[in-house]
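User: Here's a chain of 315 residues. Predict its fold as tokens.
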Amino acid sequence: MKSEILNDKGNNQPSYKSIAQHVYNLFKARSSKDDEFNDWAGYRDRLTDFVIDCIAPGESLLILGAGKCNDLDLKKLAAHCGSITLSDYRPETADEAFARYGLTPSDKLKFVASDYVGITDEDYLEYTERLLKIMERLSSGQEEIDGPDLEALKDCLERIYQNNEDYEIDLGDEMYDRAVITGVHSQLNNSFRGLFQYVRKDVEDRIGEIKSLEELNAAIFRTTRKHTKYLVNRFNEAVFAVVRNGVLYGYEKNIIYTPSGSDQPVIGTVDGARQAGELIASLPVKKNLDCIWPLSRRRGIKFTMSICYLDLQSK
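Assistant: Prediction complete.
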């Protein structure tokens, strides 16, 4: 039986703000169902060895989008580097990384919180609420997306991006000898499309199947994609500004669905990776490593990754 959303007074009227907040909270708290630490062991070993090969002993290292360090052996790096700084927007992931590798935070091993995008919770909530209204009507029997609703959603996204243009990424005042960025670019502009899936699940769980989403999905993709290159460029500039010598720069080249093993170019869901790859043509690549990143054993998805060492002294 389909459920109803009740407002605070108990009336059978949608309380979109409260349900939007609930969906957004679920999205922010999302975590993988895969055992990434064990599944990525081979990838972690290859990437860590490549990083060490590009860094002189005793140098300082900044790891961006560090998360739980499932893709880098933090203990091995700590033994090689003079200091390591983990950069991410969630401090709890760094706590897990330190504990997993049996390391204690110190002046030479620390975490710095950083937001690489700067879009506010309020903006994401407004977008989520508008998306909820559209999807609920489609789930309730509306066969086509209402034109004004779709235009209002696209206008909302454009306004969010426009307001975000002056945002300055703060990576702190410290300078580092080297930095590592792997698999970060693809996430910079992926939240709106990620929220799309969370809203869809919520609506279908509460009300029923949504049959006509192609136009809505395409509109969101086209609108967000226009801004990806700017976000990637701004992020790169912020990183290069705090690094003296070189950057280990990794991005997804192809997506491999296993066990069929069919390759597809990276477009769409990891559009930022495509932009990151295009920028390589204008950057001084000194060394390369191509390897397989087994993103999700459960979903059977792997990526071919291109890891490049960029010599900033040659820029």
